[in-house]
């Protein structure tokens, strides 16, 4: 559920009521005949191990941006937050049995140079793969964040299926966005991929704080979000986007946090910046894909290479990235930008999905020669990757599965 502590004062400023009647929240048909994914609280296992978590009264005073997880790996995770308090704080980490793993102290983020607050980042390392841990943040005089759970990424070869939630074009604080958020709260997932346009209208700091962090704060305490910028997130050349997120920096020097890659178990994930499609990024992508030895590869980006929506297919992405997707056997490509859902047939062996109506509203979508299924509906995508197959379910804002596909390895 959204962080209700911060919603009320912002509603009048942002004109939420005027934006409520935006799009279709329920699908009108079904594009599959398989079994829907099981429904359960997104963090049920973590709550059972660590408790419900929550921000205390002291934490409510201390935190400006609530704690959120970034750069999760099999052995470490970063915890970030912002505050105006100079009071010292620490993070106490235990395993699910309550045994103390360690105490970690926040470090001032030198990449954030703000006069209105201080941004802190803490790297919690020395962790075991695929393990639930509980963390608690305390100030000098009391608890700020009650024990909250997270699970580290698996190692390659793990038999445990990986569950991914993908969403795009969401950050507007509309009724659509909160309806999709409610539906997201009823399925389980290990990480979230955001295909851009998360901070309408212009990607300013206030857009990020009000339209993204304040909405997803409860999920982000337990589940890592890996994000890519869209055209609406590019204020000051994307500087704010790169400041507030701590993303893998293996796209350096040119693409630091603009594009990057990560491994999660047997999955290699590449995040691409479609606002800067050029030879530099294409060469980086080819290097990343050619060196990949994981059996599964997923790419996510903002502007879709194939789309029957308002904006349509993106020529620069087709010419620079699609040949590499096909050459190196990318299994699934996720995009946003068009405010609809569309799944293609396999194009050159690659399945493309536009999952771009996570809250901004919906627009009409047509059908093209490459289209397998399309619909104008607020939704998110849920992906499960196992040993031999990858399944994607599209779930609308009412919580109904309305499309699915299975991709074999």
Considering the chains and any ligands shown, give keywords for the structure:
21 strands, alpha+beta, 9 helices, disordered N terminus, globular
Shape: globular
What is the assembly state of the chains in this entry?
Answer: single chain
Cα gyration radius (Å): 20 Å
Estimate the strand proportion.
25-35%
Number of helices: 9
Query: Which secondary-structure class do the elements indicate?
Result: alpha+beta
Largest sheet: 7 strands, mixed
The sequence of SSEs as H and E is: HHHEEEEEEEEEHEHEHEEHEHHEEEEEEE
The N- to C-terminal Cα distance equals: 35 Å
Name the poorly predicted regions.
1-20
What secondary-structure arrangement, pairings included, does this model have?
Layout lengths: L3 H11 L29 H7 L6 H6 E8 L6 E7 L5 E7 L4 E5 L2 E2 L9 E7 L7 E8 L3 E9 L10 E6 L7 H10 L6 E4 L10 H16 L4 E3 L11 H6 L15 E5 L2 E5 L7 H13 L4 E5 L14 H6 L1 H6 L4 E4 L5 E4 L6 E5 L15 E5 L3 E7 L3 E8 L4 E8 L1
Parallel strand pairs: 9-10, 10-11, 13-14, 14-15, 15-17
Antiparallel strand pairs: 1-2, 2-6, 3-4, 3-7, 5-6, 7-8, 9-19, 12-13, 16-17, 16-18, 19-20, 20-21
Detailed description of the structure:
There is one protein chain. The chain has 409 residues and is of the alpha+beta class. 20% of the residues lie in helices and 30% in strands. The protein has a 7-stranded mixed beta sheet with strand order 12-13-14-15-17-16-18, with helices on one face. Strands 11-10-9-19-20-21 form a 6-stranded mixed beta sheet, with helices on one face. Strand 20 (389-396) and strand 21 form a beta hairpin. The chain is globular.
